[in-house]
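ARCHIVE CARD
Drawer: 12
Card no.: 0347
Subject: one protein chain, sequence and derived structure
Cross-reference: see card 0346
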Amino acid sequence: MGKSSAYISATILFLVLVVGFTYWLSTTEEHAGGGEGSHSEQSEEGGDSAGGEAEQIFAQNCASCHGENLGGGAGPALDAVGGNYSKDEILDIIKNGKGGGMPAGLIEGKEAELVATWLAEKK
């Protein structure tokens, strides 16, 4: 195995570990009381609760690749994704993944809908 192959393998392993760790953290928070209860408490506090909830879901599941400020990283920038894709197209990508690195099903159901709606507003 050459240096470039070893580098690629190490990079892929690192990304898999980061995504796995992020997923583990999100499920650990849910079991520790940071899941649905927190979401409803946040909604009761007022403000843009759906957008705030979508941001929190994004931070827990997507920011490790797409950046905390949607500026990109291992994955593409999403700060203007709504100018290129509709909510339904974004939801399809979240559900089914996209070739080149976006895995399918990192978030599902209502959470995927919230994030897709929130991202579609980014133009």
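Annotation on reverse: DSSP finds six helices and no strands in the chain. The radius of gyration is 16 Å.
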